[in-house]
Each structure stands twice: as C-alpha cells, then as structure tokens.
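Kindly draft a polypeptide, keeping tokens residue-aligned:

***
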Amino acid sequence: NDERRVVSDLFATGECEVGTIDNVAECAVQWVPGSMRYQDEALQLGAVTVVTTSHIARRLGFAGDLTARSIARQYKAGMDVSALGIFDQGFYDKLGYGTGPYETLTQFDPTKLNVDMPDRSPQRLTVDDYGHIHQCMSKRRMHHGGATLSSPENTKAELELTENHFGLGYFDGPDGSLSHFIWGEMKGEHGPYQIDLRAYQTDEQLLELLGLMKSLGDQVNSFKIMEFGEFQLQDLLDQPFRTER
C-alpha cells in the first residue's frame, strides 16, 4: 500500500542498522545527514530519524546497541553532532544525548491576527513539489538549534505522511524558485488546520504567510502552529488569551 511504499522509500534515504531474531528483522535504527544551526555556525548533523522495535524484541537491548553503532558511524562519516526525537527522558541519556527545549504548539483564531492580508493569491503546493519545498526549507531563515536534512526524499516522505495535507506558497526566489510557504494538515472544513512545515527568509515573507492564514479565517476557525523562535505569536494577536477560555 501507499504507506508501506513511503516507509520503504524513507529507509532508502539513510544508513540503517538492523537487529534480527531467527533471521527476521525485529529492530531498525536509521540516520541521515543534515545541518544544524549552532549560534552563527552550521554544524554537520547526524539525525537519527527512525528507532523502531517489534514487540518480541523489546527489552533485549537492540535499540540501545544499534543506536550506539549508528552514532559511531555518524562520527566516522564526519558528523559534528547527533540528534534524535525521544519517547521520554532517561533512555537515550545513557548514549550521551541531552534533552532539548520544549516545543510549544499554539492554537489561534486567524481573524485575530494584527497583520495585513496579502493583495495577491498564493500558489497551491502538492507532494509533487517536494523538490521546491526541500530547497526552500534548506534556504529558510534558521535560528539557533534549527535543523534541516540533506535528502529531498526525506522531505517527500514527510509530505506524504501528512494526512489531508494542503500547501500554499509564493515563488519569489531567484529564477522563480519557491521562497516562502506553509504546509500542513486539514481537520474538518473549519479546522483546526495544523501547520507542520513553514519556511521564509525575510520578515516581509513571514508577515505575508501570517496574512495568508488570516485571509482563510472566514472558513477556518483556528490554526495550530509551533511557536516562532524570534518572537511570540501572541504579540501579533488581538485578545490572544481568548482562545484559551
């Protein structure tokens, strides 16, 4: 099926360590190269994107051993730093990983945004535009801790795994390349719409994307989006705490 194909394509984008029982794969750890912003410096990133273990292989040490082997391979490949998403604190501390900052997901009424609505229409984005989206993500404005993966196929898989997806953007870059966009998941006709990916390079592009969300407010009652690194969204909202009541 489509999900199996997407997962298969995802595994093909990086290096994978596999643990077997009776010649059957029961645990897999994958990493892919990327880049992480550390203050004003770009570090070579080894991103552990998959750690998966079957029920019969639980508590046998597979995940820890294979992740350790993956870290060693990342080091040999010249990576400066390794990162992964954890299921809870404690387990990966044994391998030297520290706990990152909280990610705050905020929900808001787009009509309450104190920004101007754009005077032009965006262009629709689909999974077929994954090359443009990946390039835009790679060139986006990043702050300390921001990361991007090297393979466009990782971006394609992320887009395909988004249910009821939608994408809107503007092609203002050199030679008509994608310069700023939003991509996310629609839940019902009136939302909430959750923004999973966004990219922009300038303040003006950021404000245009927020204005684009505001322009959808006659139909979409709310958006969910990860808080921005350089400011708090409530600074641009009229009555920001109203949605919490």
Q: What stands out?
A: The first strand starts at residue 15 and ends at 21. The chain has two domains: 2-95, 105-244. The chain has a mean pLDDT of 91.
